[in-house]
Write a structure and sequence with these properties.
Immunoglobulin-like, disordered C terminus, single chain, 6-stranded mixed β-sheet, 2 domains, mainly beta, 0% helix, 29% strand, 5-stranded mixed β-sheet, 246 residues
Length: 246
């Protein structure tokens, strides 16, 4: 799993988390969260956890928690390693024993969508709605989706492997370099099976047809682009076939 670091400060009687004033936070079981309290504004306010809001039950939550240094000094931090045994909802608060410095820290919001994706920031960073440290998230936080639909644009940098029986593309495919089809199997390299009544295939040069395979199999060419024939030209009542050579 991953480790995420929050920069903690104190302003107007509240902990600020990465600049947001006492936001509700979410966690995923198995991740480690580090609350960096090196900033001088934290002096006298060690960030701690409790099972009750603002530690109203007067019982500090310490499972998986490690506190290092003195709040407001270099190296000071509170770390929590979450797990399946971590209480679902805890609260961060100031150990000073006064004021309402913190908010909720819960695991609701993670692994709850169909895609098992972590929820992004909800609203602006100064809102009181739950949010996660998405600027610190790494790619391992995304659990591969099984089925369903992705919407919006998708950019893939690097190689992509698609496994399955059928890949359906319902859009215009644009390539910026040569499209090469390598067939390592024993079947045909390219097979075009048209079930529509339109042309089976159209090859164009800058928008002008140079080779058209019509529905039914008839082949036609542009007026200035001729097919160099090799072998026989055969014609029947239903289709034409050419054996073409380069």
């Amino acid at each position: 799993m991953s480790t995420f670091t929050y920069i903690v400060k104190v302003a107007s009687g509240k902990f600020t988390i990465d600049g947001s004033s006492a936001p509700k936070l979410t966690f995923r079981d198995g991740d480690t969260f580090v609350f960096d309290q090196a900033d001088a504004s934290n002096s006298g306010h060690t960030l701690q956890f409790s099972a009750t809001s603002n530690n109203s039950g007067s019982s500090e939550y310490t499972t998986g928690v490690t506190k290092t240094g003195t709040a407001g000094q270099a190296g000071s931090k509170t770390q929590i390693v979450t797990s399946g045994s971590t209480t679902d909802t805890i609260y961060y608060y100031s150990g000073s024993g006064s004021g309402d410095y913190g908010e909720e820290f819960s695991n609701s919001g993670f692994n709850t969508t169909t895609e098992n994706l972590l929820k992004p920031i909800v609203g602006g960073e100064t809102t009181a709605e739950k949010w996660g440290p998405m600027i610190n998230q790494s790619i391992d936080q995304i659990v591969p989706k099984s089925g369903g639909t992705f919407s919006g644009d998708l950019t893939v940098t690097g190689d992509m492997t698609v496994s399955g029986t059928t890949t359906t593309v319902d859009t215009t495919l644009t390539v910026s370099d040569a499209m090469v089809v390598n067939n390592a199997g024993s079947d045909v390299g390219i097979k075009v099976n048209s079930t529509s009544t339109g042309n089976i295939m159209q090859l164009q040069d800058n928008g002008t047809d140079v080779l058209v395979v019509a529905d039914g199999g008839d082949i036609s060419t542009g007026t200035t682009n001729k097919i160099k024939q090799k072998g026989a030209f055969m014609q029947s009542s239903t289709h034409q076939a050419m054996v073409l050579g380069g």
